[in-house]
C-alpha cells in the first residue's frame, strides 16, 4: 500500500484490513468510479458486485465510460454510507457518522460469453440473493451487448466515524439538544402489477445490507 | 456545456435544467468529489451544501485533499440516489431506479473569517434546517482550523431512471415475480443522553430530503 492510500487525516479513523473493506462494500450496491479523461476527472455512479477480492462492473458496449475503463487505466472506486447526523452544541463540532472505502485498481474486460453470463448471475445474486433461481439467465445476444469489467483491488483504505456527539465544551450553551439522528436505507413494500400474494420470501424479506449475503447462505 | 457533459448513453434519461439538478442535490448532503493527483484519479466522499448555483465544501486545513482542491484544479462532483431495485423476468433486464447529478467545476478558497463563519451556519442550516437557532456559531479559532471552498458549477448533467420493470418478453418465464423494491433513506429516532422530552421539533420531525428546505421556509 503506497503512501497515497494511507488515510492522512484522523488516522485513528483509518482501517486497512480486508474484512473492514467487505463490511463497507457488501452493505450496498452502488459505487462512484473515478478516472481521468483528457487530463480531467470524471466520477460516475455504477452498480457493482464484489467477487472475492475483485469488483465486477458492467455497462453497455456503447458506453464511452466502460470503453475507457476497459483500457486498464487507473481507477478509483469509492463507496460511502452515511449512518447518522451528529448534532453538537457548537456549529463547528457537528459531524456525521459514516463508513467509506476508497479503492485503487485497474479493470480488465471479460470477453468470454459464458463467463460473462456467469458474472451476470453473480451480480444479480449479489444484489438480490435468490433471484437467479427464478430469472432467466443472459443469452449470448445479451452478453454481447454488455461490457463486463473485473477490477482488481490493488489497494484500499476504509474510514469511519461512529458513536455519539462529543461532550459539550465548557464555553458552549448547555440547553442545546445534542445527539445523533441515525440514517439507514429503508426498503418499501414490493411494488408489482402482479398478484401480491405471489411475492417470494427473498423479495418480501429483502433488505439492502451486508447480512443479505449471509441470509442467502443460511 | 461541452460535449463531455452530455449524457451519451440513454439520452432520454438526461436532463440539463438547473431545477432538475437542485432536486437531486437538495435530497442529500453527501457527494463524491473526484480530482486528479499525480495523474491518477482520486474520489473522496464529502459533505456539501448548495448555495444558489455553488456548492460549499469544507474540511480541516491539514487535509491534503482540501489543499489540492483549493488550487482551483478541475473537479468532478457526483451525487447519486438509488431509489429502487427493478426486478425483471430476465437477468439482463434487471435495473435500478436512480437519480444522479454529475457536476464539473473548480473550487476556490474562502479566506475571510466572518464569511467562513456565515458559510458554516449555511452548511449546518442546509443539512439540518433550524439548527443554527440553537447551536453556537463558529469562532475565529474554529474558522482558522477549517478550509472552506466554494465550487462554481460550470456544467452538469442529471440522469435518472424511474418507473416499473418493463413488460415480460415473449420468450421469458411468465411465473417470475417482476416489480420494484423501493429504497429510501430512513431517519431513526433521535439518540441522545439528554431527556428525550426536550427534543425540538426540527429534530424529531427531521427527514433527509429536499423538502426539509421548504419545511424550514414555511
Automatic annotation (TrEMBL), chains A, B:
It holds the Pfam family Pyridox_ox_2. PANTHER family: 5-NITROIMIDAZOLE ANTIBIOTICS RESISTANCE PROTEIN, NIMA-FAMILY-RELATED PROTEIN-RELATED, FLAVIN-NUCLEOTIDE-BINDING PROTEIN. It comes from the Bacteria. This is Pyridoxamine 5'-phosphate oxidase family protein. It comes from Natronospira elongata. SUPFAM superfamilies: FMN-binding split barrel. InterPro entries: Pyridox_Oxase-rel (IPR024747), Split_barrel_FMN-bd (IPR012349).
Amino acid at each position: 500500500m503506497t503512501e497515497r492510500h494511507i488515510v492522512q487525516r484522523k488516522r485513528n479513523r483509518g482501517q486497512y484490513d480486508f474484512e473492514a473493506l467487505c463490511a463497507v462494500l457488501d452493505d450496498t450496491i452502488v459505487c462512484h468510479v473515478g478516472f481521468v479523461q483528457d487530463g480531467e476527472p470524471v466520477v460516475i455512479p455504477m452498480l457493482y458486485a464484489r467477487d472475492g477480492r475483485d469488483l465486477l462492473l458492467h455497462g453497455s458496449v456503447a458506453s464511452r465510460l466502460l470503453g475507457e475503463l476497459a483500457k486498464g487505466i487507473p481507477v478509483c472506486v469509492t463507496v460511502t454510507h452515511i449512518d447518522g447526523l451528529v448534532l453538537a452544541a457548537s456549529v463547528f463540532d457537528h459531524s456525521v457518522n459514516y463508513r467509506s472505502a476508497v479503492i485503487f485498481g485497474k479493470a480488465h474486460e471479460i470477453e468470454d460469453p459464458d463467463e460473462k453470463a456467469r458474472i451476470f448471475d453473480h451480480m444479480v445474486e449479489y444484489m438480490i440473493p435468490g433471484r437467479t433461481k427464478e430469472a432467466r439467465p443472459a443469452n449470448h445476444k445479451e452478453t454481447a451487448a454488455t461490457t463486463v469489467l473485473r477490477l482488481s483491488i490493488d489497494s484500499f483504505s476504509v474510514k469511519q466515524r461512529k458513536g455519539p456527539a462529543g461532550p459539550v465544551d465548557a464555553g458552549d450553551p448547555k440547553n442545546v439538544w445534542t445527539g445523533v439522528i441515525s440514517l439507514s436505507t429503508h426498503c418499501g413494500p414490493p411494488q408489482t402489477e402482479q398478484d401480491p400474494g405471489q411475492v417470494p420470501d427473498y423479495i418480501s424479506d429483502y433488505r439492502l445490507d451486508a447480512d443479505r449475503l449471509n441470509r442467502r447462505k443460511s
